[in-house]
Amino acid sequence: MPGTSHEVRLVVRPEGLPEPDHFAVVEVPMPVPGDGEVLVRNRFFHVFPALRTLIGGSVPGAPFPGLRPGDTLYGKAIGEVVSAPSDAGVRPGDLVEHWFGWREYAAVPAGQCSPLDGTLPDPAAHLGQAAIAYTALTRDARLRPGDTVFVSGGAGGIGSLAGQFARALGAGRVIGSTGSPDKAKRLVAELGYDAAILRGTGGRIADQLAEAAPDGIDVLVDNVGGEQLRAAIAAARPGARFALVGALAGQLSPDLAGGTAPVEIDTFQVILKGIEIRGFGGSTGPAANREWAERFGGWLRSGKVTFPHVRVAGIGNAPPALHEMIGGRHLGTVIVEL
Ligand SMILES: NC(=O)c1ccc[n+]([C@@H]2O[C@H](COP(=O)([O-])OP(=O)(O)OC[C@H]3O[C@@H](n4cnc5c(N)ncnc54)[C@H](OP(=O)(O)O)[C@@H]3O)[C@@H](O)[C@H]2O)c1
């Protein structure tokens, strides 16, 4: 066992988007687990956009505390148990999921460690956003066979799975948005999308969506908000169901603080079309949790879906990985592998 560990800390709260030099990778003494704590050697952790929100101070009502200069970043991680109290329910060598990412070793309260049960073929896939994508489609938007589905942020951690899941669940047509022409091609070639639309340089989103879905959309999985939500309302068919999951247009804008993506929406259209707009409701208990994991695991094993992700090696590369994720460099979930 080494005597020290490394972790990533916020050095300064940035004006605008975070850059790698707003963070420091520091050497700290090896954590000593207290009563009821498990010592975990992290193997993977998730690089995710809500960190921008946390760095901006978080948003009212969010379950996660904001980050201040000097704080160690946190987020979902997969690690191997090094030592555990005898009643912790895990043993040395077990793989567990927890929220003490962005560090090599963590002392984690036993109640906050979930052992991996092998339902997913690759431990790293537990850092994928399958629970969100599956729940948004099946519980919030209640996808029906034949539906036309629009996934905003279609190439991201959630979107790269939501598009594939929509297809696997019987959608008739699936459209995704992304920020790069290269990823737009990959959405269609690799992830089963029928069409991709481009934010930023591709012309008005509403026009692109009208062209990609000439008969309108039934379902929206909205990771972006802002202009893309407004365009989805314009394109909605009567009785369309919208699951609002994220707010990337606000979160990752250099001009905003990491919170919402302000937009004016046409409420007459919402009323006239009877559009149902639901905030993501989260997973609803052990049965629902088993369901997404078994479906995702089964689809991965059969090859029906893939887990699009990028692995970045070493904690020293974690701050650049965050910068690249925000800049849209990668497709799928971004993971640091230790
Ligand atoms: N409700 C919940 O419980 C819950 C849980 C998890 C995540 N979320 C939220 O869901 C959303 C998606 O999460 P994710 O993990 O799948 O993120 P993600 O899509 O992987 O986020 C990174 C991507 O955001 C896109 N992006 C960058 N700047 C943008 C901008 N200004 N406008 C729009 N898109 C931009 C880029 O993709 P392109 O280049 O392809 O556009 C980039 O690759 C986030 O808002 C996240 O916080 C919610």
Structural features, described:
- The protein has 338 residues and is α/β, with parallel strands linked by helices.
- The protein has two domains: 4-128 and 307-337, Medium-chain alcohol dehydrogenases, catalytic domain (Quinone Oxidoreductase, Chain A, domain 1); 130-279, Rossmann fold.
- Helices cover 27% and strands 26% of the residues.
- The chain is built from ten helices and 15 strands.
- It has helices spanning 50-55, 130-140, 159-168, 181-190, 205-212, 227-235, 248-251, 267-273, 286-302, 318-326, and strands at 4-10, 23-29, 37-47, 77-83, 95-98, 105-109, 114-115, 148-152, 173-178, 195-198, 217-222, 236-244, 276-279, 309-313, 333-337.
- The strands form three sheets. Strands 3, 4, 5, 6, 7, 14 and 15 form a seven-stranded mixed sheet that branches.
- Helix 2 (130-140) crosses helix 3 (159-168), helix 2 crosses helix 9 and helix 5 (205-212) packs parallel to helix 6.
- The radius of gyration is 20 Å and the shape is globular.
- The model has no long low-confidence stretch (mean pLDDT 96).
- The structure holds NADP nicotinamide-adenine-dinucleotide phosphate.
- NADP nicotinamide-adenine-dinucleotide phosphate binds at residues 48-50, 129, 132, 153, 155-159, 178-180, 183, 199, 223-224, 245-249, 251-253, 280, 325, 328.
